[in-house]
Amino acid sequence: MVKRRKRNSFIILASTLLLTGCGNSNLEITKNDILEVARDDANATKKECSNVSVQEEKKYYTVSFDTNTGSYEYKIGKDGIIQERNYKKSNSEEVTTTEPVEEKKEETKAETETKKEEKKESTSFDENQQQAINAALANAGLGQEDVTDIGCTLDGATQQYTVTFTFQDIHNTAMVDAATFSVLSSVQS
């Protein structure tokens, strides 16, 4: 039941973004939207969260809240993408995952192609990350050679991998179960 709610919220947010126009740089994501992204990632309902704080910074929001299993803190970009997450279990074990944030700048087509080739060669993943990547790519009907900017992080709290990649200038994000390596959800933006 919880997974279905999470998947539905993710799909709703993605649909909202698509319906409001992918290319619309003036897209306004509210503090409530950001809080929902964080709660969905933490697999927590509104009732399960206490000490909720959403602070707007220049380029991102900082979201924090407590649940009965531990404390969560997120840095979420104004685009709704989680840049960093910190989870501290009730027994004081801290789990941190960070997703790289790239500054957007104008560059020539040659520079872009060179960077894509460098990223393909310099990225290495452990065996489980590679399995998650393979599952996400298979779900999209693609091979690793078809995509660029591949990333893979494990959320220790939910035991899910977040796999990100770019295919034909479209950013893809897939959530993959760490135990079964089945794709739980995928979104294009």
Give an overview of the whole structure:
It is a single chain. This protein is of the alpha+beta class and 189 residues long. It has 4 helices and 9 strands, in the order H-H-E-E-E-E-E-H-H-E-E-E-E. A hairpin with a 4-residue loop joins strand 4 (82-89) and strand 5 (94-98). The longest helix is centred in the N-terminal third of the chain and has 18 residues, at 2-19.
Number of helices: 4
Write down the Rg.
17 Å
Strand order, sheet with most strands: 1-2-3-4-5
The sequence of SSEs as H and E is HHEEEEEHHEEEE
Helix content: 25-40%
Number of extended strands: 9
What labels describe this entry?
alpha+beta; 189 residues; 9 strands; 34% strand; 4 helices
Give the secondary structure arrangement, pairings included.
Blueprint: H1 2-19, H2 31-42, E1 50-56, E2 60-66, E3 70-77, E4 82-89, E5 94-98, H3 109-122, H4 127-140, E6 148-155, E7 160-167, E8 170-177, E9 183-188
Antiparallel strand pairs: 1-2, 2-3, 3-4, 4-5, 6-7, 7-8, 8-9
Helix pairs in contact: 1-2
